């Protein structure tokens, strides 16, 4: 069971102070969604948690160990990271692309051991691409390719999964499919963190919400505690309708508020 923590984390990108003094602890078995307006520092935070951005102050710890000091292969086995807008450049089959997720384990994608083959098959089935194994990934739709890349991350079997806007290119049905996959992955014991812009779906699926605004952590709690009318007005500049209905906690953006 892995715990991922940021301690007084600050990151500067050129002249931009992207993150300032972030204190955050994320635990297994929970699906955490990071939200915030454009430029809030969401992707920078996710990359810092993955050990891909060096802090200018503070630290990121995985079970008490500095992530930045882990060997790259060890870190890749522990933390699976899926960037926003990932691409498939070569006409590899779906199964071959997903098999790349086994590289951190020292497994050759074209000669997987039984455990690797099982991981790949399970990941492909989880994202709803069973039967696509032999199709070139470059011939798939953008949404299908996005699910292939998610399957590659799942195939790593890392205890931590970090994904940046996993539903950005998907139709409504497959948005739900992917979010159900991420939720189930967390319920199975993984630590799962995703960046999302859809507040309605974030409220429905997240166990906890991290709200960032201008590089600062504004809140980290259950969706109903974070996505309040006051916070949505302050951070997003929107008026929102919030309700507790039979299907759960519901957030619907109504209209933009006048800029100050």
TrEMBL record:
Domain ABC transporter: 4-239
Superkingdom of source: Bacteria
Keyword Mitochondrion belongs to the record: no
UniProt KW keywords: ATP-binding, Nucleotide-binding, Translocase, Transport
Gene Ontology MF terms in the entry: ATP binding
Main function: Part of the ABC transporter complex HmuTUV involved in hemin import. Responsible for energy coupling to the transport system.
Family in the record: Belongs to the ABC transporter superfamily.
PANTHER family: HEMIN IMPORT ATP-BINDING PROTEIN HMUV
Entry protein name: ABC transporter ATP-binding protein
Naturally occurring in which organism (per UniProt): Microvirga puerhi
């Amino acid at each position: 069971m892995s715990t991922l923590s940021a301690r007084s984390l600050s990151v500067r990108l050129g002249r931009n102070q992207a993150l300032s003094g972030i204190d955050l602890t994320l635990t297994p078995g929970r699906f955490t969604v990071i939200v915030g307006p454009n430029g809030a520092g969401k992707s920078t935070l996710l990359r810092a948690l993955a050990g891909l951005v060096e802090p200018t102050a503070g630290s990121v710890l995985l079970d008490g160990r500095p992530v930045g000091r882990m060997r790259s292969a060890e870190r890749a086995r522990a933390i699976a990271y899926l960037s926003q807008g990932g691409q498939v450049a070569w006409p590899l089959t779906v199964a071959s692309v997903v098999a790349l997720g086994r590289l951190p384990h020292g497994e050759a994608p074209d000669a997987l051991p039984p455990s690797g083959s099982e991981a790949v098959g399970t990941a492909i089935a989880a994202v709803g691409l069973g039967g696509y194994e032999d199709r070139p990934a470059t011939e798939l739709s953008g949404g299908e390719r996005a699910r292939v890349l998610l399957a590659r991350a799942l195939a790593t079997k890392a205890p931590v999964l970090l994904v940046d806007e996993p539903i950005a290119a998907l139709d409504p049905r497959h948005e739900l499919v992917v979010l159900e996959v991420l939720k189930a992955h967390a319920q199975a014991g993984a630590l799962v963190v995703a960046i999302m812009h859809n507040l309605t779906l974030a409220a429905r699926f997240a166990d906890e919400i991290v709200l960032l605004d201008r590089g600062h952590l504004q809140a980290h709690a259950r969706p109903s505690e974070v996505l309040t009318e006051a916070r949505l007005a302050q951070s997003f500049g929107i008026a929102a309708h919030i309700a507790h209905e039979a299907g759960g906690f519901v957030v619907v953006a109504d209209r933009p508020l006048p800029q100050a």
